[in-house]
Design brief:
Elements: E1 2-3, H1 5-12, H2 16-21, E2 29-31, H3 32-42, H4 48-61, E3 63-65, H5 69-85, H6 91-103, E4 107-108, E5 122-123
Parallel strand pairs: 1-4, 2-3, 4-5
Helix pairs in contact: 1-3, 5-6
């Protein structure tokens, strides 16, 4: 499963409902895009140091999915599909969707706009 940024935030907050839908640690993946989004969100937090330490532990226990050359093909396909349907979603979430499609993984997210992406399974809590 790919953890979207709101899933990462919920984990940091100890959301028990999220814990019920998460599988074993070994099958959780974090897109590098979501790491950037989360870091941007904690930069001005009063708990920044604590959250940065927590994030480091999360990164060390999960596989981080980078955007690579092959990912661009999936990204391009999704952009065209969404534009043709007249249903564009935030660009960072297109990249997350591309990684999900590339690795054939569901996305754990509360963002319903992921449902616009063909061949993508979203898990919510």
């Amino acid at each position: 499963m790919i953890l979207d940024t709101n899933a990462i935030s919920a984990m940091a907050e100890g959301d028990i409902a999220l814990e019920k839908v998460l599988p074993e640690v070994g099958s959780q993946f974090i897109p590098v895009i979501c790491l950037g989004e989360y870091r941007a969100g904690i930069i001005q937090s009063r708990a920044r140091r604590q959250l940065e330490r927590w994030l480091q532990m999360l990164e060390n226990s999960r596989r981080v999915l980078p955007v690579v050359f092959d990912t661009t093909h999936f990204y391009a396909e999704i952009v065209v599909e969404l534009r043709q349907a007249g249903r564009m979603i935030p660009i960072n979430d297109v990249w997350v969707s591309a990684l999900a499609r590339q690795h054939d993984l569901p996305v754990v997210s509360r963002d319903a706009h992921f449902d616009q992406v063909k061949e993508l399974q979203r898990v919510s809590w």
